[in-house]
Amino acid sequence: MTHQNRKVAIVTGASRGIGAVIARQLAAQGFAVAINYASSATEASALVVELRQAGHQAIAIKADVARSADVARLFDETEQQLGKVDVLVNNAGVLKVLPLAQHSDELFEQTFAINTRGTFNTLREAATRLNDGGRIVNFSSSTVALNLPGYAVYIASKAAVESLTQVFAKELRGRRITVNAVAPGPVATDLFLHGKSEEQIQTFARMPPLERLGQPQDIADVVSFLVSPAAAWVNGQVLRANGGLV
């Protein structure tokens, strides 16, 4: 594609896990991709090299989504190097499972800073920076519907994202921009698998009627659909991609 008609996507938290698979998928769909990362510079650089070697356009941009100045710079650098943004995927997130009463002030602040304020910051920036006809995909979690003990603060941060999604979709009236959220169930990433016994992993895998853990590709496929012309009429929705778990 030429620079003029090639679409541009920002994927936050895209150096590894689900975010990296989404970045690969969007690149394969013809998007020029800005891979945002907070600390995993080596992995982000390696992903850029991989995508460029495959003939795609990709750049890596370090930015903390919890900081509004960083988010403004993320859009600035993407515009300068790739062009105006068409797609924003808010994949960056943190999860610490701990009973509510055991949360420190710092952990509460961090969870909301990245999961909720991070989404707020990118949405606010996208309001003036995204091309008309663009797509925004936020990340919630199927834990919002499960209400599992130990997930209270995380769920609260993601429930807020669902509300932001539904209202923002209405606030962008007249721009032909859709705003949706994906709410994955358990997905076999390092983040999920780390610190769990084989027995715990198998318990999660048996929970959905489809009797397996989600794979990063399962989630990337849903994001791919939501940013495609096929999903032009899907707006303000939360799509639970969890194999029927809830």
TrEMBL record:
Which controlled-vocabulary keywords does the entry list? Oxidoreductase
Q: Which Pfam families match?
A: adh_short_C2
Entry-linked Gene3D superfamilies:
NAD(P)-binding Rossmann-like Domain
Q: Which InterPro entries match?
A: KR_dom (IPR057326), NAD(P)-bd_dom_sf (IPR036291), SDR_fam (IPR002347)
SUPFAM superfamilies registered for this protein in UniProt: NAD(P)-binding Rossmann-fold domains
User: A single Gene Ontology molecular function, please?
Assistant: oxidoreductase activity, acting on CH-OH group of donors
Could you tell me which residue ranges the Ketoreductase domain spans?
A: 7-190
| Keyword Oxidoreductase listed | yes
Its domain of life reads Bacteria
- Tell me which family the UniProt entry assigns to this protein: Belongs to the short-chain dehydrogenases/reductases (SDR) family.
Q: What is this protein called?
A: Short-chain dehydrogenase/reductase SDR
Q: Which organism is it from?
A: Pseudomonas batumici
Q: What is the lineage of its organism?
A: Bacteria, Pseudomonadati, Pseudomonadota, Gammaproteobacteria, Pseudomonadales
